[in-house]
Every structure is written in structure tokens, then in C-alpha cells.
Amino acid sequence: MPMHKLKLSTGLRLARVGLHLLSGSLQTAIFFPFLDNTLRDSLKRRWSRQLLRLLLIELAPPGAGVTGIESGLLVANHVSFIDIFAINALVPCGFVAKSDVAGWPLIGWLSRHNDTVFIERGRPKAAHLTQRRMVEVLSAGRRLAVFPEGTTTVGDRVLPFHGALFQGAIDSATPVHCLVIEYVDSDGLRTDAPAYIGELSLLECLCNIIESGGIEARIRLAASFLPPLPDRRHLAHRAHQAVSTALHGGGSGTPPQPPGNAPAISA
Q1: How do residues 169-195 score in pLDDT, each as one tens digit?
Q2: 3-265, CATH topology level
Q3: For the chain, which residues make up each domain, given as ranges?
Q4: What is the pTM for the complete model shown?
Q5: Which of 63, 156, 180, 264 has the least C-beta neighbours within 10 A?
Q6: For residues 196-204, average pLDDT
Q7: Is the model more confident about 90 or about 107?
């Protein structure tokens, strides 16, 4: 979107967002090396909530169990890059992301210095290296989030989950927590404004969010699967079923039973 076509109010808010991203980069560079994980999480949570407010996004009260997740692999449907900050505003964690995110202005720098595990495509052994890094993070008792659809949607459906992204949880014997993410307008109806899809640029997506006039981000726990976990194909299928049911049902309800002997925890 050409800058000369921006509304003045939108341009001013974008400038504030840019300054906030720069501030986050400076905080990460200056303070993170000296902070323990608890203080890092506190800083990420506060910074993410501030960013959402700048973008006129209100974080709805979380569903039962979301803020109580202490460790494990978080899997969620994927609508926008905003998903990362919405999750971090509730349960700060590292993320598994495509390697091209590392090249984004400011956001890429923040990602590289905030426990992000990048998926590098086209390199021999790239999948193995990603999985090994995931196991290291999860085995250390940290939270790690991934969007197993592998791409974004407008939020009206949940695409099939890629099973390979669940292997790290299986190998590290850590829980898998399924989250559902929704964005709604002032009338409580699903909005496409945050959707980062197709040929839409990062700037255009930010403008859509700001000019929507206000969005509510809703994140709920759909189900949790505890180790010992089944094979990744069945685990991915059950996780997809839980998220899809919660999305289309408008609430978490009673999650479907997981495969094998992995017990489920209802949200």
C-alpha cells in the first residue's frame, strides 16, 4: 500500500507500532541476556499486550486453563502474524516459524532473539535439525507454540495439521495443548481484518487491523493430551479435531478423547 494513500490517523498509529517494535528490540538486546525465563516471560507478556492495544485489539478473557499452561507444545489454528502476540500476551513462549519470518523488519529480529525455532526449507537435514531443537526446548520444561496448518486462513476453518510438527512433543514426552484462535468485531462476528493471506503485504495487513475500528482476540483451550502420546499422525488428527470442533462450536465444550492411552484434560 503506497504511503501517500494512508489515512493520517492510520499512519500515526503505524508510527507508534513501529516505535513499539523498536522498543521491543532494544529491550530484548539490553535486558534479555541478564534475565531468567520468568522475567523474560513477564516482559514478553507486557510488551505483547501493549502492542495489541496499539493495534486496537482487545484480548478477551481467556478460557479456563489457558493461562495455567506451564509447559509443553501449544498448537493452534493460524490466522495472522498477530496470533504470536495474542498467545504471548497470555502464555509467553517460543514459536516454530518459517525461516522467511527472520527477514521481516524488526519482527524478524525480535523472533530471532525470542526463542524462535525456524523451519528452513530446501536444506538437507533441515527437518531433523528443527525437530532436535524443539526437543531441546520442550525437554527443558519450556513452552513452545506451533501452527501445524503450515499456512494461514481467514479464520473460518481449520486446515489439516502436519504431523511432523508433533514429533518433538512425542520425543520429549511433553503435553500437547490445543488452542483455538478467533478474531471478532464489535458485534461479536468473525472479522477477516487480521487475516494475513495471499499476496497481502505486512503493511496492508496492519492497516486492515487498525482501520477495522477495533477487534477482539479470543483464545481458548480446546483440549490437552498428556504423555505417553501416540504416533504423530493420530495425534495430529485428534488435535485438529479438537481445534476444529471448538472453532465451529463457539466454545471448547468437552474435547474428543485422544487416541491410544493419552488422557485428555477438558478445558
Answers
A1: 999 999 999 999 999 999 999 999 999
A2: Glycerol-3-phosphate (1)-acyltransferase (3.40.1130)
A3: 3-265
A4: 0.86
A5: 156
A6: 92
A7: 90
